[in-house]
């Protein structure tokens, strides 16, 4: 037996190997086409349960508990994958994220149950728990809430319909770029690497504004510039405040 994070790490390792390396593409396509009638769905779910027995036995878990663990993982994986294969939006990233989150939650619940001396109280009273909550809060804050703030700010500066029609970018591509940009800025800020933040801003400026400057569309350029600056300011501000709370030193 071991601590919670040690057990969870082993379980996640098995999950990654089975879900991404031991699952051929033809299995994925077969699950989409035939759902519960697909033998591949059963093989894949059973594979997860069987391979998970290896770390379970290595951790000293009894045979009866190991069999129950394998059965639980097999059944839960089957149900989750069946849902994903059956839904019409199964190919969307949101479904993939929900699918993986559910798998991880199942493994975390099992690891929590079998780990030595782990209770809700020990987690809440851990000296690093407030720091973890602060970091999670920061990442959540710079994603959707920040996008909504930027949207409200940009409403004061509408661009013409012709300007919008002239854009040939990806659908919601700007929002995704903003997410990635703020996550990178926040991450580098939390580790105190402000030089890396400057590199991210420089790289974005080259690719984003270089293309806009080729046109005479000044309103679109200003629109993008305002949104980018608001995004950067919020990410740096949140990262700096959380870094001060964590006692991170600037590098």
Automatic annotation (TrEMBL):
The lineage of its organism: Bacteria, Pseudomonadati, Pseudomonadota, Gammaproteobacteria, Vibrionales. The keyword Transcription does not apply. This is DUF3307 domain-containing protein. InterPro entries: Phage_phiKZ_Orf197. Keywords: Membrane, Transmembrane, Transmembrane helix. The chain crosses the membrane at residues 6-22, 42-58, 95-115, 135-154, 183-203, 223-248. It holds the Pfam family DUF3307. The keyword Transmembrane applies. It comes from Vibrio mangrovi.
């Amino acid at each position: 037996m071991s601590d919670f994070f040690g057990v969870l790490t082993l379980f996640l390792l098995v999950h990654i190997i089975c879900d991404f390396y031991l699952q051929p593409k033809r299995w994925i396509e077969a699950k989409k086409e035939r759902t519960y009638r697909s033998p591949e769905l059963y093989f894949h779910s059973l594979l997860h349960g069987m391979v998970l027995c290896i770390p379970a036995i290595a951790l000293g878990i009894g045979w009866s508990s190991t069999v129950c663990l394998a059965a639980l993982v097999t059944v839960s994986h089957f149900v989750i994958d069946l849902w994903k294969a059956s839904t019409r939006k199964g190919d969307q990233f949101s479904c993939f994220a929900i699918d993986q989150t559910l798998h991880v939650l199942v493994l975390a619940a099992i690891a929590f149950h079998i780990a030595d001396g782990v209770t809700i109280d020990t987690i809440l009273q851990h000296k690093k728990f407030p720091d973890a909550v602060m970091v999670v809060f920061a990442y959540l804050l710079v994603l959707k809430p920040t996008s909504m703030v930027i949207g409200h700010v940009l409403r004061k500066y509408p661009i013409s319909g012709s300007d919008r029609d002239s854009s040939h970018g990806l659908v919601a591509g700007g929002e995704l770029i903003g997410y990635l940009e703020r996550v990178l800025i926040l991450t580098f800020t939390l580790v105190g690497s402000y030089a890396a933040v400057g590199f991210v801003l420089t790289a974005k400026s080259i690719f984003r504004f270089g293309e806009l400057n080729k046109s005479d569309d000044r309103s679109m350029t200003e629109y993008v510039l305002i949104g980018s600056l608001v995004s950067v300011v919020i990410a740096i501000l949140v990262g700096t405040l959380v870094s001060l709370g964590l006692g991170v030193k600037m590098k």
